[in-house]
Amino acid sequence: MKIDLIAGARPNFMKIASIIDAIHAAQSKKKNIEYRLIHTGQHYDKNMSENFFTQLGIPHPHANLGAGGGSQSEQTAAIMIGYEKLLMTEKADLCLVVGDVNSTMACSIVAQKLHLSVAHVEAGIRSRDWTMPEEINRLVTDAITNFFFTTTPEAGEILKKSGVTEDRIFWVGNTMIDTLLKHRSKFQKPPIWDELNLHKNEYLVMTLHRPANVDEDEKLKVLIDELIYNCQGLPLIFPAHPRTAKILTKLGIDHENLHIIEPLGYLEFNYLVENARAVVTDSGGITEETTVMGIPCITLRNNTERPETVTIGTNELIGTDPAAIKPAMELLFSGNWKKGGIPELWDGKAGQRIVNTLISILNFK
Ligand code: UD1
To answer: For an engineered disulfide with 111, which of 42, 104, 116, 144 has Cβ 3.0 to 4.6 Å away?
Structure first.
């Protein structure tokens, strides 16, 4: 059995790493499972891609489609053309996609049209916000997926309501958390730690890249001003995504407490998060990691496809109105932020469950 594993953008790499580990473990037990790792090239900067491969011990991809940059459609089309060419030369039995990025949707379409089965890891989650490209990617991917691997029972319920039969849904846990738990003891101080003489609980980490937050210049400026004004003089460390970095440079945003740095490696970023007073973000994956590490997380979004990070974890959605920052910060500094718990099956074994399931369904189908 040969599986194509698709990884294209930063949040894919930590999700795929644990599946690769589990495949290697199955191979060492002489199971009949092979894989080909395909990097679509959606993210191409060294610190958005290559560094993750090195730190997480992900093998060199078998193919890189070089499909980064461009508009949503240009990027999606380039990935589809590249993957189709590859499949025309050498087919696989199954295409496994993770998450909700353009690479996820593009490759699942190509695979299904060439009659490969598709497995989707992190299936069934929904923000219900069709202005987010990720939501479109989730909907399209799940409409043509054969095997659905879910992080929560709620995601399975969403799939069932959309007509997916129960025998194709597998609640396995969270492969992003597999990677977090595996590498937690190896987190590393980033250079900024000593440069700023940072101390545990005495700084905040911030990440922002969603169009709703960064594409309107004036709004972004007000958001950042509010954060600086309300963070009680603590440094705000902001590893900026390339799209945000470009906008910040253009706006000339500058303050002595705001430290805009390049995107960090996985081990360095999570070291900063694990020791921070709180994280302010509009990412989805980071809300899962802060939940597991028990770090308060303030999410600048109106919705989330990961409600368990709010109902069980340490995350609060405060929306994108800058006026919501002050009360959230007051709650944080009052020391009454919720403690949170960890969702069931987020235990470091999701990758193993996925691979065991694939071996059983594909070999005995
Ligand atoms: C993508 C994902 C998003 C994820 C984010 C994390 C989609 C629809 N979105 O958004 O879910 O949270 O990654 O990082 O797939 N760029 C660079 N260097 C890079 C990568 C991108 O300069 O290494 C530039 C691109 O050329 C583009 C912009 O950043 O101008 C956005 O990149 P893109 O891949 O389109 O989406 P992201 O915003 O990164």
So the answer is: 116
If you measure from the C-alpha of residue 70 to the centroid of ligand 1, how many angstroms do you get, rounded to a whole number? 10
Residues of the chain with pLDDT under 50: 365
- Supply 188's token pair: 């590393």
The pLDDT score that the predictor gives to residue 62 is 97
Residue 10 makes CB contacts below 8 A (sequence gap 6+) with 43, 48, 49, 52, 263
Ligand 1 interacting residues, C-beta cut-off 6 A: 9-11, 42-45, 48-49, 68-69, 75, 100-102, 133-134, 209, 241-243, 283
pLDDT digits (tens, 9 = 90+) for 84-139: 999 999 999 999 999 999 999 999 999 999 999 999 999 999 999 999 999 999 99
SS (H, E, C) 2-48: EEEEEECCHHHHHHHHHHHHHHHHHHHCCCCCEEEEEECCCCCCHHH
What distance in Å separates the CA atoms of residue 123 and residue 120, rounded to the nearest whole number?
Answer: 6
| Distance, CA of 7 to chain centre | 11
Predicted local distance difference test score (pLDDT) of residue 365: 46
